[in-house]
Design brief:
It is a single chain. The protein is an alpha+beta fold. The chain is built from 12 helices and 9 strands. The strands form 3 sheets. A 5-stranded antiparallel beta sheet has the order 1-2-3-5-4, sandwiched between helices. The longest helix is centred in the C-terminal third of the chain and has 24 residues. The radius of gyration is 20 Å and the shape is globular. The two termini are 32 Å apart. 39% of the residues are buried.
């Protein structure tokens, strides 16, 4: 079993090592002397780099992609650093330790933050053919994923101060409207299915249960696993969209990533959840309900929202590619993904199944 290994930095996404070192020497001297900067190849949003120091310590630097502006819930490095800091102060252990945040864009050209690197395994979809992932392992791991999400939702947001992260009243309505606004701002082609999903989400707006902490991007490739025992989740990553709100929004988003064996090849490319042994989406929902005590009878709505949101995220990424702000070849085919997720959402509405 190998860890999620960094590689050579992609052309056009290099960091100015001298400028970074000068900043660290003044603001985070404990990091020490940088000896290597590499890039993690996964992910479609913010860019992530591996930093190695002369004394063998490992850190991670996060920065927004080219052309992206910080918005509430996306590409906001300061907010992500703040989330990690609040979680650390609350005593939550399954996170990297935040080290420093820089909002001075004269240093690297964009804001960034640095955190410790947690050693372990990240399961990405393209690793399926290279790993000997036994059904029993995936069964136990999928249970651990549900239980980790339940534990996140069990954090007392009032006692820890985490309630500062969001305004839960009207959260679902704002999310639906906000993501449609993002779609309109990044639109490149006419996709009627997106509009149909939006109207469904507006018309079927649910009454929310009491609010909790939300991760908002919970999936296999955003957790670090123990390489000696994969079902153990060592850390949860990618907190950029974390907030306070309806916990079923988190569950619906997680399910929208949770592909099954009968899904399209595009959906199966999202994750490793289609491999034998994993819980089905229905089993995920049932275990979440049993462990959290929450009613999931209206979870289809939240699943549709998850597909809608993921389609908009893909549209935003494709828009950057379309405008020439990135040359990453992975982004060229994302428009077809926007259409595929939208159609999946319409099919689920028609069948009443996720």
């Amino acid at each position: 079993m190998t860890s999620d290994s960094p590689t050579t930095v992609r052309p056009g996404e290099q960091l100015d090592q001298a400028a970074l070192q000068a900043y660290l020497s003044e603001h985070a001297p404990a990091v020490g002397q940088l000896t290597a900067i590499e890039q993690f190849p996964g992910g479609y949003s913010n860019l992530t780099y591996a930093l190695t120091t002369a004394d063998g310590q490992a850190y991670v630097l996060r920065r927004p992609p080219a052309g992206a502006k910080a918005i509430k819930g996306g590409h906001d490095m300061g907010r992500e650093f703040w989330v990690l800091t609040l979680l650390q102060q609350a005593g939550y252990k399954q996170i990297p330790i935040p080290i420093t945040y820089c909002d001075d864009e004269s240093v690297l050209g964009y804001p960034f933050y640095i955190m410790t690197r947690v050693a372990g395994v990240i399961l990405r979809a393209n690793m399926a053919s290279k790993l000997n992932l036994l059904p029993e392992t995936m069964h136990r791991l999928s249970h651990s994923m549900v239980d980790t999400l339940v534990s996140l939702h069990a954090i007392d947001v009032h006692q820890t101060g985490i309630q500062q992260l969001g305004k839960p009243d009207g959260y679902v309505q704002r999310q639906v409207a906000g993501w449609y606004t993002r779609y309109e701002a990044s639109k490149t082609d006419d996709i009627p299915a997106i509009d149909a999903l939006f109207h469904y989400l507006v018309d079927a707006l649910p009454v929310s249960p009491p609010p909790t902490l939300l991760h908002n991007d919970f999936k296999y490739d955003n957790v670090i696993l123990n390489p000696d025992f994969l079902p153990e989740v060592r850390a949860v990553l990618d907190w950029e969209m974390c907030t306070i709100g309806d916990p079923l929004m988190d569950v619906g988003t997680a399910l929208s990533y949770w592909s099954e064996a009968g899904d399209s090849a595009f959906r199966r490319s999202f994750n490793l959840t289609h491999l034998p042994g994993n819980l089905t989406r229905q089993e995920f929902a049932q275990r979440y309900s049993e462990r959290s005590g929450r009613d999931v009878s209206n979870l289809l709505y939240y699943y549709i929202f998850g597909l809608f949101k993921n389609a908009v995220v893909m549209q935003q990424i494709y828009s950057r590619y379309h405008r020439g702000l990135t040359t990453d070849p992975r982004f060229a085919g994302l428009l077809a993904g926007v259409q595929a997720l939208s159609n999946d959402g319409l099919h689920s509405i028609e069948t009443g199944r996720f």
